[in-house]
Task: inverse folding
């Protein structure tokens, strides 16, 4: 037994060898897992330039025969660039990216699917996703677009520093990315000691910086504020000259200043008392004058006709008239509002000959059925006599900076089809002006499938120059009709666009023929979008057959109207009419449920579910070829570990995590054409 124990054992080296081999295999397997690598830092581009959004498959492999997708979650359709087997597919591509995207042809065989975006626009800024469905991998890239013209900083006098006998200057500069640095220089180019720089990042991802410095009396009072960002090689600066006399006044002794302040207060009180007394005398004088005149101002027409006046009754009315007159004068205003037709701004106009301080005034805006939002004017805002103030929507750049151009970050651009209610409220919560604008242009189908009709419900003519009609029939590529310069949709009238081969009842400017538009049948699925000259979709209607739109009066009760996604919690109002698929979120965070309330089965092949929890990056689920959502039945998509039993209607999503009742969940179901069919937010 002792001899056997001392013999060399073969099991131990063999065991060690097996463990090493297994370790090497696992290491190789883990390293071989493909990953898409984007950019951890935002990509910065200038308007008009070309930019590369990086996305690399690692380990590198040939993807030239695979499907590659670039998407933006905030668009509809979501597709920015789609390439299948080396060929770009444009049928589902978002219109604003047409002709501006490409992938590196020579890099696809090495797994390089970086997107080149040409002629960058401000609207291109956002979060992009590169995705390869074959391996179900995705990566995210953020693009920040900066204007090619960054405005110069603005220097203002922020206050006085009595201890040091100097003026406090503030410098502010907007529209930067990345975050810039701020420097103060004297007239000889020497750096000045300034306070800490305050930085604010706006909703558009751009930075606003501000800094303060105290200027004391010195040989040179020329002060320069310089804002620079070395990464993008941009420098902006502004200088100001502070006069010696200004500093001398500020350095006088405190007793003199206090004495002047007391004298000023006494003068102001005296002036206010004099004005109040004068007003009281005017009211009493006017009241007596109205009484003795027997109500001449009451009704000139009665007096002109020689009708007798009831003196007693007139006296009674005249006693209250000064108050009514004063109240009417108090409530009257010569401020007018205009809603920008392009959805970019609201405009206030002062028609009087006196300046109006807007401090404490408010604008309340209600878009469609959304909750109203409020804008409060700051202390420094003044609406000058016979002048205007513009309040610009977020992301819309005023033509020139200045105190008459304000930006409202909570105000989003609206389309001509939106319903807008705007109220101007004085500082005493009194509504001064109300402007309401409803949808005015409607689109309708011909019951006999011969034409499309546009109807102008408003009382103003509408020039259709540059407007477009986009029509998609079933699964065919959409076609586009552009209205010529001379076409005008007159107030409360129609314009007919006839299909090829269909003869209008009589010729005229209101009857147009579209040679590319063919007659559709009762069973065809038709999607029609009316697009204005700013490329905004004004109206969208969709039908499975003309019989669903038998109302030939677009302004009538049964007409199809689109007044914004907020009415349905759906980012694509048109899609709601074309599908009866609904999404339900389990309150316990275990599953999502799709319900088909129609009478026909629905193939979900190529459809997707996109889910965003709180501020996390969204995740995507793609339905396989075999998945069918039966008529009046459900399909459940379960969180891993929560599936009750296996069946074709119970699917497991490995990337989906359980959520709580406190979480904010956004769920979108997207069809195979990239259109968002339903949106649920909880």
Result:
């Amino acid at each position: 037994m002792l001899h056997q124990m001392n013999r060399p054992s073969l099991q131990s080296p063999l065991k060690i060898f097996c463990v090493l081999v297994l370790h090497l295999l696992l290491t190789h397997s883990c390293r071989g897992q493909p990953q898409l690598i984007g950019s951890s830092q935002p990509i910065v581009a200038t308007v008009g330039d070309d930019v590369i959004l990086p996305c690399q498959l690692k380990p590198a492999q040939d993807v030239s025969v695979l499907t590659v997708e670039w998407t933006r979650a905030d668009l509809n359709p979501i597709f920015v660039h789609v390439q299948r087997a080396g060929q770009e597919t444009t049928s589902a591509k978002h219109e604003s990216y047409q002709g501006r995207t490409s992938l590196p042809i020579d890099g696809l065989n090495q797994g390089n699917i970086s997107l080149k975006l040409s002629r960058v626009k401000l609207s291109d800024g956002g979060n992009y996703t590169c995705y390869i469905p074959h391996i179900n991998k995705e990566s995210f890239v953020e693009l920040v677009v900066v204007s090619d013209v960054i405005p110069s900083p603005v220097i203002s006098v922020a206050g006085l520093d009595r201890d040091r006998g100097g003026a406090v200057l503030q410098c502010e500069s907007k529209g930067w990315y990345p975050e810039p640095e701020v420097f103060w220089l004297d007239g000889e180019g020497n750096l000045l000691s300034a306070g800490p720089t305050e930085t604010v990042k706006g909703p558009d991802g751009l930075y606003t910086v501000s800094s303060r410095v105290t200027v004391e009396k010195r040989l040179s009072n020329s002060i320069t504020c310089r804002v620079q960002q070395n990464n993008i090689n941009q420098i902006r600066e502004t200088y100001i000259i502070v006069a010696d006399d200004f500093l001398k006044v500020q350095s006088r002794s405190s007793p003199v200043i206090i004495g002047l302040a007391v004298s000023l207060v006494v003068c102001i009180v005296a002036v206010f008392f004099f004005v109040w007394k004068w007003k009281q005398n005017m009211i009493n004088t006017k009241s007596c004058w109205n009484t003795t005149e027997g109500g001449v101002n009451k009704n000139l027409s009665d007096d002109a006709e020689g009708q007798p006046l009831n003196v007693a009754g007139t006296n009674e009315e005249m006693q209250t008239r000064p108050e009514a007159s004063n109240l009417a004068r108090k409530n009257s205003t010569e401020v007018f509002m205009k809603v920008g037709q392009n959805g970019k701004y609201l405009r206030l106009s002062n028609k009087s000959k006196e300046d109006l301080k807007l401090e404490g005034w408010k604008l309340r805006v209600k878009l469609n059925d959304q909750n109203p939002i409020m804008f409060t004017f700051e202390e420094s805002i003044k609406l000058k006599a016979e002048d205007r103030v513009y309040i610009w929507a977020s992301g819309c750049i005023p033509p020139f900076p200045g105190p008459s151009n304000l930006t409202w970050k909570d105000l989003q651009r609206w389309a001509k089809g939106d319903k807008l209610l705007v109220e101007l409220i004085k500082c005493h919560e009194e509504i001064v002006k109300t402007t309401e604008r409803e949808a005015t242009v409607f689109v309708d189908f011909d019951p006999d499938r011969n034409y499309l009709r546009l109807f102008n419900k408003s009382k103003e003519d509408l020039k259709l120059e540059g407007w477009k009609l986009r029509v998609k029939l079933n699964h065919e590529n959409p076609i586009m009709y552009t209205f010529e310069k001379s076409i005008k949709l007159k107030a409360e009238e129609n314009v007919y666009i006839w299909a090829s081969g269909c003869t209008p009842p009589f010729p005229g400017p209101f009857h147009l023929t579209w040679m590319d538009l063919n007659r559709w049948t009762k069973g065809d699925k038709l999607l029609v979008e009316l697009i204005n000259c700013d490329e905004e979709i004004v109206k969208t209607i969709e039908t499975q057959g003309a019989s669903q739109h038998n109302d030939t009066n677009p302004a009538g009760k049964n007409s199809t109207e689109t007044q914004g996604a907020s009415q349905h919690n759906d980012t694509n109002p048109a899609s709601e009419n074309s599908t009866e698929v609904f999404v339900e979120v389990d309150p316990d965070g275990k599953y999502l449920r799709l319900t088909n309330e129609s009478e026909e089965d629905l193939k979900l092949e190529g459809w997707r579910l996109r889910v965003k929890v709180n501020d996390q990056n969204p995740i995507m689920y793609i339905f396989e070829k075999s998945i069918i959502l039966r008529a009046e039945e459900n399909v459940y998509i379960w969180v891993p570990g929560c599936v009750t039993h296996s069946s074709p209607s119970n699917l497991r999503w490995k990337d989906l995590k359980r959520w709580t009742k406190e979480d904010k969940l956004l769920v979108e179901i997207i069809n195979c054409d990239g259109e968002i069919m339903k949106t649920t937010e909880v």
Residues 108 and 550 are 51 Å apart (CA to CA). DSSP finds seven helices and 48 strands in the chain. The first strand starts at residue 35 and ends at 37. The chain has six domains: 35-146, 154-250, 254-296+313-331, 335-405+419-431, 441-570, 579-681.
